Amino acid sequence: MLPPGRWRKGVLYNAVRQGYGGNQKLGYHYALKCGYDFVALIHGDGQYAPECLPELLEPLRTGDADAVFGSRMMHPADAIKGGMPLYKFVGNRILTWIENRLIGANLSEFHSGYRLYSTKALSRIPFDRNANGFHFDTEIIIQLVAAGCTIVERPIPTYYGDEICYVNGMKYAADVVIAAIKARLQNMGLLYDRKFDCVPPGHSQYLPKLDYKSPHQLALNFVGRGSKVLDLGCAAGYMATALVEKKECVVTGVDAFPSQAPGMTAFHLHDLNQGPPAIDFTGFDHVLMLDVIEHLNQPELFFEQLRAAVALNPSTEVIVSTGNVGFFITRLMLILGQFNYGKRGILDMTHTRLFTFTSLLRAMEQAGFIIEETVGIPGQFPLALGDNLVSRFLLACNSALIKLSRGLFSYQIMVRAHAQPMLANLLKDAESHSTVRADLLQLSHSLEESAARELAEIG
Question: pTM of the full predicted structure?
Fold first, then answer.
């Protein structure tokens, strides 16, 4: 639909050949520039019925969809009746099944040449970064799904005649599968490609991991029932909520962004890059720093400041977790020339420092912590693959491998530690102890002299 007074006529001709995907980029950019509400893609090979356009447009007009695809596979038998070659039918079904599984969609067809998009939806995704080839169509679906857009399918008739197809089927199949695999790996935090970075603003990449071996689950086990807990970098407060609900703890949260977790006793808005918050640490049984230290600009300095804050209470336990950059997947990626930072995982874009077991323990020990326990944590397979038999099997295999080589197969590192007393406090204690001891010695000496005098008088 065009805004009033913006009617345009004619066909746009590219001065330089742009390819299938490149032509779509220009068309969508033109639609956005000119203020259209919707834009339709219809292949010009005569296989798609223009008369279906009003019906396909309706979900966009009513606001029930961000994109509408005409599907030949909603009624598969009709596709065969319409003359679709069997090899194309089978290939379409197989590729669609693979793509659905990889990106978490549920479409009947990924390969339709009849599509309508809302320009509002197009403005939310970086379609300009997509390929200029035929797998542009798959990449834009991946982007729409990642952006949380609603895709609606409507059945359309299938027409095949004697038209010639110039698409290299094997190359096209490889391209669409590779695109879907890349998107899946990005969701798993193992790869990053900017064109698939379409997560809506305000959507948290960090989720609670309490149902399998993870820093959150272990911390929940380590903390005693009814403990007073300080959660540094509490984020949305999901750890605080679990501690309150499952362990009846009293939890105080600290984060650079506001948090309103249910049951949290107190919250302090504070940037940990400025050091620990100016609160009394002596009343806490546990101080949590779960996947936080890697976000700080000066971790070693923070550890020193934290040690000073908790040293007055020798019983306070500090629990720290972080990613292990020595994880075998990260090493393999480096061998292959890949060290891509992304939105999640060990190479999270917001991480400023990366640790191994050795470097983390050294940083804490040099800051004055006594290490009580170190735990290797397996990969977050249930988060990446869903909580199913496959992810649980991989979790068990990874846990077994950690026993062989903790530094190579641990995805994350977890440390339980206590702070050594500060030298200033030790000196103060020593001076106090020395004064008391001197007084006792003087008293003892005085008593001895008094006893000696009394004996002398008796004699």
Answer: 0.73
